[in-house]
Design a protein that fits this description.
Blueprint: E1 3-4, E2 7-8, H1 13-18, E3 22-29, E4 36-40, H2 50-56, E5 59-67, H3 78-88, E6 90-93
Antiparallel strand pairs: 1-2, 3-4, 3-5, 4-6
């Protein structure tokens, strides 16, 4: 899924928008709160960096999705998710950053 004959599937955002849907599996980290790992359903967790898997700890499967440019994701840009899966084999969604500004009551 992520590479075909050593070439990236998506050379540009335009290529990504014209591509067929990508079957994706989403896993939730049981160690890191609100961390979600998107991988191609075809490749699964094989071949992912050991450091990444160590950081995330145990993973539980959340859902299988078909990613395409028209699909809306709650906290990520679907085009970026597709490009990262193609480039690195995964997309890691982390929780939104917390503001360091003090709260005003």
């Amino acid at each position: 899924m992520s590479h075909t004959s050593g070439k990236l599937r998506f050379n540009s955002v335009r290529d990504c928008r014209e591509e067929a849907p990508v079957k994706c599996t989403v896993y939730k980290s049981l160690r890191q709160f609100d961390y979600y790992l998107y991988v191609s359903s075809e490749a699964g967790l094989s071949g992912l960096p050991e450091g990444l898997l160590s950081l995330l700890g145990d993973l539980t499967k959340v859902i299988e999705l078909e990613l395409h440019p028209q699909r809306k994701l709650a906290q990520a840009d679907v085009i970026e998710v597709m490009r990262q899966i193609d480039k690195t084999g995964y997309f890691l969604q982390m929780p939104p950053g917390k503001s360091s500004a003090p709260l005003v009551s």
